[in-house]
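Researcher: Please generate the 3D structure of the following complex. Treat every line as part of one assembly.
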Amino acid sequence: MHGFAYDAIHDEIVVSSPLTQAILIFRGGAGGEEAPVRVIQGPHTQILGTAEGGNDKVSVDAVNNEILLPVGTGVSRQNRTPITDNGVLVFARDVNGDVAPKRILSGPDTLIRSVAAVAADPVHDRLVVNSGNALLIFNRAASGNAKPLAVIQGPKSGVANISSFQVYPEKGWIIGGGSDGSICAWSINDNGDVPPRWKIPVQKLTGYVASGIALDPVHKEIILSAAGQRVRPPSGIMNSVITFSWPEIF
Amino acid sequence: MRGHENKLFLLFVVSAIALGIAGSSMLPADRALTADASRLISIESLPDLGEMCLWEPISAKPVVPSADNNLFAAFEDKPVYAASQETVATADVARPPIRNILDTDPIYSAVTVDTRLNEVYLQDPNTWSIRIFNRLDNTPANAARTEPKRVIGGPKTDVQFNSCVYVDPKNGDIYSVENDIGDSIVVFKNDANGDAEPIRKLNVTHRAYAMAVDEENDEFYLSVQYPPQVAVYRKLASGNEPPKRLIQGESTRLSDSHGIAIDAKNKLLFVNNWGNISDYRIPGSGRFEAPSITVYRLDASGDAPPVRVIQGAKTQLNWPGAMAVDPDRQELYVANDVGQALVVFRETDKGDVQPVRVIKGPNTGLSYPTGIFVDTKNKELWATNLGNSSATVYPLTAAGNVVPVRTIRSAPKGKVSLRFGKTQAVAYDSKREEILVPN
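Model: Done. Output below.
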């Protein structure tokens, strides 16, 4: 699993199941081998897990009651033949079973080129996709072959492609990975080759390169996970969950 | 090690209240950010490292640890920098982390025994290393741990997400299966130590989990989680050499395959399956099935149906890990990870059958066992425990809530491991103030 979500409004955990082409929704307090409360799975869902990737991350827009699922060709190293178009499937949050997506964002104009992490900003009514080394910013309800409204990309931007990123709608931040192993904050209003407004040089400080990001606005902290797959940390311990205080962005 | 990319049901929940299991530190109040703090503006042209899940190229240059970049050294005082959103410039936040959750002890995913030299090999996916002990090591109750004789690990080894280990009974070569993005089998000389380069490396299909070797025919069988398959290679294969044959297809009933074992004497192949299945070429074809063990003729190929299937509630199978066979007793041993047990079947079992023996209970020392090895020479059964940094040994015919005859511990007694296998994702439960970490 490369990305999942906690829905604070409805107290649910939303995860994707790549090998079974499913989205599983659990109670927020679920433990042990507790069954999911809902399962989105079946031919109408159009969910596709690919041979070597895909359907490996999921996001939730709790305000607008939607689940956002990136799909696509994954990160195949041995067979790069596209199986399906890359894109984002959007489901109603409360559906269960073999249900079709509400809308699909996919096509060459979207510039979505991979199984991209996705997040929604309900305050600014935007959908953000981290595809390749770019942040693609769409209208939140964009569908079909829509063009992004803005693209943050380029050497000054330092945008990297990692497993997950977060938006903080209250302050209009996009918080994602920088290509030097840092975690950066860009503005939701940025466009072009814009440098991040804030940067924590995580790799330089800790030796770890983060792949997972979570926000704790109450304590003004950012929580990062790292699994050693990019750079072996000097500690020799591959798995780590690291918390930084970052009051400036909250 | 459990295979990756499908670990959905066990979220390791860490209470924020209990944060700081290792390497923790808190900023004193007098170091808090002030509005007029000094600034360091950094605008840099940054290299493109690509997507996080991609394989790490050899050319990638890790940060060299120093007092300035080492996590533990970084807890010292650092200046704090700030900038406003309007500056359209980057403000570096160079303060150290306030907490770090990590497990400083090994977690053991797999085991094998070199009965010629009386050495035990344990796979540790937490530090990406292979740790070698004497077979008769037995950690005293009052000792913190038993130190290994030697450790194979480091960037040159290519050991990563290591999920299976095998020692050639003829020449002592050490085989290590690299799961997840490792996508390879690396082979070391028997006396390898430290950051040793493998003598051979075979690139294999993504999501390879475990191997079993037919020494008579110089072939090995490799289980691949997804798309589920068994790949049969020449034993000395290297580089990009393709498998000699594949067992793959809907008729095989393979599904998220993990443990694998062969009985060369009786010409049988055993594969266990977690039951997560889909055709990756067909949207919406996914489904969940009950865990199973599928049995094939040793020469099976292509979309071959199993000759028998062990499956059902009576089997107790629950995320089965490694398997091993005793051809003389014609018994199949399974490390039943989430079932917290070692379960034993007859090779001839089929359908919804109860195991003939189960080792389970508080006296056994088992905690999320994923590795297993049958030592027919010394009539012993070995297990590795992800949950408590140990390997435990039992008589081959043990059953029930039995005390191990020996235990190799790599952490103090009673240690509860974090079981961090691949902490790629994270989420925060603001309602319970808990950090959610899938593995």
